[in-house]
Design brief:
Blueprint lengths: L3 E6 L3 H11 L6 E7 L3 H10 L4 E3 L2 H6 L5 E4 L6 H10 L3 E4 L7 H14 L3 E3 L7 H11 L6 E8 L6 H4 L21 H11 L4 E8 L8 E9 L5 E7 L7 E7 L2 E6 L2 E7 L3 H7 L9 E7 L6 H15 L10 H16 L5 E2 L4 H13 L25
Parallel strand pairs: 1-2, 1-4, 2-3, 4-5, 5-6, 7-10
Antiparallel strand pairs: 7-11, 8-9, 8-15, 9-10, 11-12, 12-13, 13-14
The structure holds nicotinamide-adenine-dinucleotide.
């Protein structure tokens, strides 16, 4: 079977790292045929490094090309869903960078089109390839923790300096990026959180704007969630703490797991807690439990695994590890968190009012400091360590 011909849209930090992997032959069955970027300076860099790859400045021209089978979208977030929708309309398979978009309303339109299309639509949630999160999901889904009581994710090790925020004019502005840590760094964890624990029914949030950096969006956020089962959750993230923490704790009627430093610790109660609560004749009974801990190595590169899985899904019908339509879930949590923060920290019930979110975001965009970009990223020739799971 001949190779899939891929077009990359957006040749910045991420797009150029994907280009290096594919052009370097690390994804069997896929070849890099074209690169599109609206910035001529990026196309010049591409031509210098990959003279055999066609370059284009108009995404529509790439999407209309009959000699392209699939596209990888690595532009700023606000173009992801609309470019994916246009690609699907041109019968191209799509792999989108995270998040699925800025607006849930846009993401839902693309998800609906993808479901009807019979095309492959994936999303780069590379942390789903991590065995520790896969095992945590298995434990929860198999009911080994019983009914969930609480999940708490302290994910504050997304440290970024002012230099990072100044490295692209679209970053950390309402007009250019559409949000801060919840929309750029935390989507990986918000996705894993819902992938492991399911979707909440209610979201409340506190988003601190420019707490640590000269930016106009949040660099610190706390989300409180409630679930249909009665469970509660808390998610805390920041780009301004050092050293940060990455610690996920999930407790249920049959025990608890804690993921930290690449280790999964598991307390399995030998009797369900409610049973002891109502039958014990001791006031503060100790419930016997089995304790185990397991250390997980991180995979070579989650990004490569997602690229290979996407290729296998197109060529051999293998299931996607991160279907694009599931990008709607974590975006629902972050859009609801913003809506809560913008409305006096109100509790938002899901499904949320996307029209209200869109109207409030548009107001922020009108007052945004965003100016179209003049600064440009460097060429990435490999996946950066800061994009992998960081303990
Ligand atoms: N999965 C991960 O681990 C990971 C890591 C980093 C970034 N990302 C995602 O990748 C995306 C890009 O981030 P980045 O750091 O590469 O940004 P970047 O600014 O380095 O690159 C974006 C590129 O897109 C180009 N561009 C802008 N609008 C365009 C359009 N309409 N059509 C074509 N090209 C356009 C820009 O000129 C730029 O070269 C973001 O959505 C980000 O969330 C994902």
């Amino acid at each position: 079977m001949s190779n899939l011909r891929l077009g990359i849209i957006g040749f910045g930090n991420m797009g150029s790292a994907h280009a290096a992997a594919i052009h370097g032959g690390q994804v069997e069955g896929m070849e890099l045929s074209a690169v599109c970027d609206t910035a001529e300076v990026r196309l010049d860099i591409c031509r210098q490094h990959y003279p055999d790859v066609r370059t284009l400045s108009d995404p529509s021209q790439l999407l209309e090309s009959p000699d392209i089978d699939c596209v990888l979208i690595a532009t700023p977030h606000r173009f992801h869903a609309s470019l994916a929708l246009e690609a699907l309309r041109h019968h191209k398979h799509v792999l989108s960078e995270k998040p699925m978009d800025v607006r849930l309303s846009e993401a839902k339109k693309t998800a609906a089109a993808a479901k009807q299309s019979h095309l492959v639509y994936g999303i780069m949630f590379n942390q789903r390839t991590s065995p520790i999160f896969q095992r945590a999901r298995e434990i929860v889904q198999k009911g080994e923790l019983g009914t969930l009581k609480r999940s708490v994710w302290l994910i504050t090790n997304w440290y970024r300096t002012q230099h990072y925020y100044d490295s692209g004019d679209w970053r950390a502005t309402w007009g250019g990026e559409g949000g801060g840590v919840l929309l750029n760094q935390a989507p990986h964890n918000l996705d894993l959180w819902q992938w492991i624990c399911g979707m909440p029914s209610h979201v409340r949030a506190f988003c601190d704007i420019a707490r640590y950096h000269r930016i106009e969006v949040e660099d610190d956020a706390t989300i409180l969630t409630r679930y249909p089962s009665g469970a509660t959750g808390m998610f805390v993230t920041s780009t301004g703490e050092y050293p940060g923490t990455n610690r996920l704790e999930i407790s249920g009627t049959l025990g608890k797991i804690v993921l930290e430093n690449g280790k999964l610790r598991h307390w399995k109660l030998l009797k369900p807690e409610e049973q002891v609560r109502y039958t014990s004749d001791e006031s503060m009974a100790r419930i016997p439990c089995d304790y185990s801990e397991q250390y997980f190595e991180e995979p070579e590169s989650g990004h490569l695994q997602i690229l290979r899985n996407f290729t296998a899904a197109i060529l051999r019908g293998e299931p996607l590890l991160a279907p694009g339509v599931e990008g709607v879930q974590e975006l629902t949590i972050s859009n609801a968190a913003y809506l809560s923060a913008w409305t006096g920290n109100a509790e938002i019930s899901l499904p949320m009012d996307t029209a209200k979110f869109d109207a409030l975001l548009s107001e922020k965009i009108q007052n945004s400091n965003f100016r179209p970009s003049t600064s440009h990223s460097r060429l990435s020739q490999e996946y950066s360590e800061r994009w992998q799971v960081n303990w």
